[in-house]
């Protein structure tokens, strides 16, 4: 038997002013938590409404808070994964969105749901080399670099591709973000430790990586020299 509150909720969901109110709050409420809640309710309760998907896409591209944009992106994948345009929309965000959190989320969604789709290697490869992410001056919990995510996806999914090891070596040496360099070193040590020259390569990283922990506000520095040294010691490379 329905409680009075649940009955009221069902009644309100059918009220002609409910969707417009939610849409208004999803776009205009000054509190990002309200905007997130409103878009969640729209995505789950009005999935078949003709304005829902365009609204979510608009929020991904225009909201000024990354958590709202990421939530809208997640709702699109949850509700419209089988739409052909969903993958294209995700690729567009990976390649051109101004916000690194959105680029990273779009990339992770592609890695999870479309990694076997044709053309994914080149997308990941381009992202690993060209994504414009810049390391923040201070540490932010949960922030990730799309280049690191792309590099991890390539190492896991395409270990036998002829461009994979050269890419990992390039990023281990040249990426400006120490987290990406450490990721590349770790993947090389895990997947190519028996290849000729890998011991010397890791040794050079352990000796010559330019990492400096300049800012005490960055609480968890990921030193590539340490990563390389641990890889050599743990694998007992010869």
List the helices and strands and how they pair.
Blueprint: H1 4-13, H2 18-28, H3 32-45, H4 52-62, H5 66-80, H6 84-96, H7 100-113, H8 120-130, H9 146-157, H10 164-174, H11 178-191, H12 198-208, H13 224-235
Helix pairs in contact: 2-3, 3-5, 4-5, 5-7, 6-7, 7-9, 8-9, 9-11, 10-11, 11-13, 12-13
Textual characterization of the structure:
By secondary structure, this protein is mainly alpha-helical. The protein has two domains: 34-42 and 51-117, no CATH class; 133-238. Helix content is 67%, strand content 0%. The protein contains 13 helices and no strands. It has helices at 4-13, 18-28, 32-45, 52-62, 66-80, 84-96, 100-113, 120-130, 146-157, 164-174, 178-191, 198-208, 224-235. The longest helix is centred in the first third of the chain and has 15 residues, at 66-80. The N and C termini lie far apart (71 Å). 35% of the residues are buried. The model is unreliable at 1-9 (pLDDT under 50).
């Amino acid at each position: 038997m329905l409680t009075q509150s649940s009955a009221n909720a069902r009644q309100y969901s059918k009220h002609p002013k409910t969707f417009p109110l939610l849409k208004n709050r999803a776009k205009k409420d000054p509190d990002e938590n309200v905007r997130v809640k409103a878009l969640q309710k729209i995505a789950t309760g009005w999935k078949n409404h003709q304005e829902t998907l365009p609204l979510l896409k608009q929020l991904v591209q225009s909201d000024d808070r990354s958590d709202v944009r990421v939530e809208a992106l997640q709702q699109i994948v949850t509700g419209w994964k089988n739409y052909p345009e969903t993958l294209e929309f995700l690729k567009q965000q990976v390649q051109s969105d101004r916000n690194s959190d959105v680029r990273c989320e779009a990339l992770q969604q592609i890695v999870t749901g479309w990694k076997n789709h044709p053309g994914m290697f080149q997308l990941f490869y381009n992202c690993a080399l060209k994504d414009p992410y810049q390391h923040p001056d201070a540490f932010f919990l949960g922030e990730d670099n799309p280049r690191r995510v792309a590099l991890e996806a390539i190492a896991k999914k395409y270990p036998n591709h002829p461009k994979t090891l050269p890419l990992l070596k390039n990023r281990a040496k040249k990426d400006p973000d120490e987290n990406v360099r450490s990721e590349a070193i770790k993947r090389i040590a895990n997947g190519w430790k028996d290849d000729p020259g890998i011991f010397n390569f890791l040794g050079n990283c352990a000796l010559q990586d330019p990492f400096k922990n300049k800012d005490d506000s960055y609480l968890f520095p990921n030193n590539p020299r340490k990563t390389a040294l641990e890889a050599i010691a743990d694998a007992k490379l010869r």
